Amino acid sequence: MSREEDLRATICEVGRRLYQRGYVASNDGNISVRLDDGRLLATPTAVSKGFMTPDMMVVTDLSGTKLSGERTASSELKMHLAVYQLRPDVQAVVHAHPPLSTGFAVAGIPLDRAVLAEVITTLGSVPIADYATPSTAELPDAVSKYVRAHDGILLANHGALTCGADLMGAYYKMETIEHFAHISLVARLLGRERVLSREEVDRLQGLRTSYGIASPAPICATPSGATASAGPVACQVVQAPSSPGGARLLDLPAGIPDGNAEIRLTYRALTTLIADAVRQLT
Ligand SMILES: [Zn+2]
Questions:
Q1: Does the structural domain 3-230 have CATH classification 3.20.20.140?
Q2: Are 219 and 236 in contact (CB under 8 A)?
Q3: What value does the mean pLDDT take over residues 138-142?
Q4: H-helix segments, 72-193
Q5: 70 catalytic residue (yes or no)
Q6: How far is the CA of 204 from the centre of ligand 1 (A)?
Q7: What does the pLDDT average to over 40-44?
């Protein structure tokens, strides 16, 4: 199997997984990969990504002009082009509308709390790019602001975008974001999140090199692929407390008002709180 045949087949596999996991509905989503220095292989428009065949792919140049293929590339390819332009290290881009991550993007809540070690090591924080009308030039502009520092981005009121050193790597980052969104939602429904300390976050970030993760992400330094002329790198850092210790609780339990508002506790809840406080003091 030639490299191109292999990439065409892998795009179909990624599309199947996006569809089976409910990350896309109808004909949503798009996937692309670098064929060589000047050409991309991209998914076609108006096709369910769960039922693609290798012959459906479109070959374009780096400005999105079609070079071969019977179908038309997605109009959202513009967003992918911006990523390839700014990140020479990126080989593949995946865009989908996973419901939980997209829920955070609709609520305007970035996935930037330091709660999961794997996410800190692989993706860092996941910022939200400003809302832009899909398929317009505004969307690549919104993505450009963050993609030099992040491999995973939420798109306000739209979905999510990930990139990586190969197709499956970019796809797995989409899985990680959706899994992170799911766990974050459950923790917030339960009323609290135990956030890792800044020291632990620094330690996890230090492990990135030993895992062979060269891409940027949580650290707001200029990534290797970015040029000096590209301007400052926009980055939303991982939120972690600066106090020492393994972890601490963030947020009040749901339902308990902040400030000077009156709160009501049962006798049992009150004695538990006092016992916890005494235990921490001793
Ligand atoms: Zn979309």
A1: no
A2: no
A3: 88
A4: 77-86, 99-107, 117-122, 138-147, 167-190
A5: no
A6: 32
A7: 98
